[in-house]
Amino acid sequence: MYAHVTHILKIGRSNFKPPPQVDSSVVRLVTKNPRPGIKFEEWDAMLRVCFGRKNRTLRAGWLGGRKVLEWLEGCWRAWCALNDILVDEGEGMDVEQPSGQGNRREENEDEWDGIMDVDDVGDDNNPKLQEEGEDNDDDDDGELPDLFKQASEASKMNGTSGKRKKKDKVFELVREKVRKVLEDDTGLADRRARTLDQNDFLRLLLAFNKEGIHFG
């Protein structure tokens, strides 16, 4: 995120003694100046969700589990509180969002237009890699990241885990926001995280922020 990455050359495993199990590469890193006005905590949290189950599509990763959506609901509620937006828990909820929503930045951060230059994305656009694991949506790569465990434990401590029915309208609103981001705004719903490049992830983060969902 903070540097231009260029692939220089590939080094075969036979050039090392003892030879490793994988080949190596030489890359050039040139730091960006100025750096993108993105909070690292947000970037890191979003990628943890995307790569939490790397063989699943983004749709399955973001919409396939209740814990992720409950965490996103908490993120959206926090954003509403910071922006003095009243959250209506009743039916037919219609939340009016102020102009400029999702572009909340520190005063000293530079504006970012959602595009990041990547000189060499390597195998990210390789159709073979995109097809590989096409039928592995049911394969879990372990449990969800620790941040979801922490959020779940916090809910239990606060006594909110048993009050799901009162939050269903907000929950469904957040679910629709996520669906809109993945399907309508970015078109990345059926892609897998390992096939995306930095520009794709940055577009995803910008789209979430525009819907009032921040991860930090």
Q: Could you please describe the fold and organization of this structure?
A:
The chain has seven helices and two strands; from the N terminus they run ββααααααα. The chain has 216 residues and is mostly helical. It has a two-stranded antiparallel sheet with strand order 1-2. The longest helix is centred in the C-terminal third of the chain and has 18 residues, at 168-185. Mean pLDDT is 75; it is low at 92-143 and 158-166.
Quick synopsis:
The protein is built from 7 helices and 2 strands. By secondary structure, the protein is mainly α.
Contiguous helical run count: 7
Shape category: elongated
Task: Round the Cα radius of gyration to an integer and report it.
Answer: 20 Å
Output mean pLDDT: 75
Oligomer: single chain
- Which class best fits the helix and strand makeup? mainly alpha
What percent strand?
A: 5-15%
Q: Distance between the terminal alpha carbons, to the nearest Å? A: 17 Å
Question: What would the keywords be for this entry?
Answer:
single chain, 216 residues, mainly alpha, two-stranded antiparallel sheet, 7 helices, 38% helix, elongated
Topology diagram in text:
Layout: E1 3-11, E2 24-31, H1 40-50, H2 58-63, H3 66-82, H4 127-131, H5 146-157, H6 168-185, H7 198-210
Antiparallel strand pairs: 1-2
Helix pairs in contact: 3-6
